[in-house]
Design brief:
Blueprint: H1 5-9, H2 11-30, E1 44-50, H3 56-71, E2 77-85, E3 88-95, H4 101-114, E4 128-132, H5 151-167, H6 191-196, H7 201-211, E5 219-221, E6 226-228
Antiparallel strand pairs: 1-3, 1-4, 2-3, 5-6
Amino acid sequence: MSLSQPFINRPVATSLLMLGLVLVGVVAFELLPVAPLPQVDFPTIRIDADLPGASADTMASSVATPLERSLSDISGIASMTSSSSLGTTSITVQFDLTRNSDAAAQDVQTAINAAGGKLPKNLPSPPTYHKVNPADFTILSLALTSDTLPLPEIDRYADGFIATQISQVAGVGLVDFHGEQKPAVRVRINPDKIAQLGLSLEDVRTVLGAATVNGPKGNLDGPQRAVVLDATDQVFNADAYKNLVVAY
C-alpha cells in the first residue's frame, strides 16, 4: 500500500485536514514578528562634547575636527558622521560587525585622550561616549513651556528633575536633552580704559569668575538641628555687577 492510498480512500478527511493546515498557517502568519531592521548588534559609539556659547562653526573646527582626526586612526571603522550646533558636537562612529563593542569603546576612549591636547582649554568637561543602537528610535518626546516661569528656570527643572527621573526608569537607555537656556550676562569692556587703569582683560575675567561662583557656603550647627546655608553668589542680571570692585 502506498502512502497516498489512505488519503485517496478518505477524501472528506483529507479535505478537512488540508483545511485545518491552511487555517493554522493563516493564523501563524499573522503572528509572525516583522521588524524594519534585523536584530543585529552593530558596534556603534557616539561621542558628545559641549562648549557653551560656541557657534556651530567653532564647534566643528575646534572640537569636532581634532576628535575626528584622532578617531580615524582606529582600525575597523565602517563609517563616521558628525554634527555640530550651538555649543555642542556629536560624532557617531560605526565599526565593522567583526569588532567587539567593548574593545571598540576602549579604542574610542584612547582616541579621546589622545585628542585632549588639541581641544579648547576652556572645555568645561572632557568629551563623553556611549554605545548606541542604530535600530533604536525615540519613544517619548517632551516639550516644556510655562506662562509664569522664565526659560532658565524651566531648563533647570527639566535637566535636574525630569531628565533624572526618566533616566532611572527600568529599560531606559538614553535621555537626550536639547534646547538649554542657561542664564548668561554679556560683559563689554573698553580695552583703552582698562589699560589706562593698569589692568588687563584677564584681571577682569578673574574677578568676574570669582564673584559669580556657585560654591558651598557652609552650615550652622545648633543644639537641636543643623541648617545648610543655601546662599549663592551667582549673578544673573546686569544690575548686580554695578557694585562689583575689580581693583583698588
